[in-house]
UniProtKB/TrEMBL annotation:
Residues 120-207 have a biased composition (Basic and acidic residues). Keywords: Ion transport, Signal, Transport, Zinc, Zinc transport. Belongs to the bacterial solute-binding protein 9 family. The keyword Signal applies. This is High-affinity zinc uptake system protein ZnuA. Residues 1-19 form the signal peptide. Residues 120-209 are annotated as: Disordered. InterPro entries: Bact_metal-bind_prot9, ZnuA-like. The keyword Ion transport applies.
Amino acid sequence: MKKTALFLGITCSTSIAHADAPAIITDIAPVQSLAAMVSGDLGVPSRLMTQAGSTHDLALKPSQAREIAKADLIIWIGPDLSPGLERSFDALAPDVVRLTLSETDGTIRLNYREADDFGLDHHDDEHADEHGHKEDHDEEHDHADEHKDEHEHDEEHDHADEHKDEHEHDEEHDHADEHKDEHDHEEEHADEHGHDDEHDHAHDGVDPHLWLDPANAAVWVDAIAKALSDLDPENATTYMANAESAKSEIMSLRTTIEAQLNELEGAPLLVAHDAYQYFEAAFDLEVLGSVSDSDAKASGPARLAELKELVEEQKPACIILDPSTDTDLVAAVADSSVPTIAVDPAGTDLPEGSGQYAALMGGMAQALVDCAKA
């Protein structure tokens, strides 16, 4: 495959926050960047994810554990993105103020997608109105608060399901032979219906890649300013002013990206990992399908066969890869004539600082345009 590379990653910070400013811990680079926009010269937030890879199974170093224990404020996306961090925070810093961005009022939350939410059988119907997708997303913006309780209720069920799945996983090890026939039957059922039912229904709830919508970033800088002001009231005016400047920058960034992506002219895309739903919705992009779902679980054979057929019918302008991509699976659905681009949605290879969020979002947009023109 022709490959256009966009290198997004990190360098670990060695800076020490101002003595009088709250010590801030963040989970991923985009969150660190937003926190830096608000803290300004008063402090340098640190982050835990310092290498490209899955955020779902982030392992802490001993030095990071010590840093968490000494923190004044923890800012993170939430347990849907990094479930292991919640346990670490509870154990290491039970009394530290914790700002969970996914739970912040006004945050736009989109549910995990199933296969039919992409462009397969319902592709033409879903896009019959050329503005329908954007109007749906705008409605999400207008009614984000209205759906907050509904999503939180879903998250509670997700948490219960997570423990249920762990228990069932243990039982599978103890009773592998007992469940073998049942598993074979499920696979036959998936093939009969043309898709992998076990995969399609493996997860429910909120897609945690929320930072890829600038509207969420704008909501979060206000929440960060409020949290910092409560901890450091002497500098509250500075935090609030920084948040206002940050929101202006984020909205300007959104306008710039919209202009960049106009060059795609509705060209369809294919994603290897369903991690870009918020970016797609925010900028009205058309994505035919995903090789693996939002938590990187690979599609089954039936789903891959559907994707392959779709790619042959509606050749995508670009395939978006990321650090967790299984290139063999991608090759199973698309040949080398389709250009690809490597993108880390967490931006872990970009220089840290207040400008990282703009570099991530703007760089992703330009890379998509360049890939589509390859």
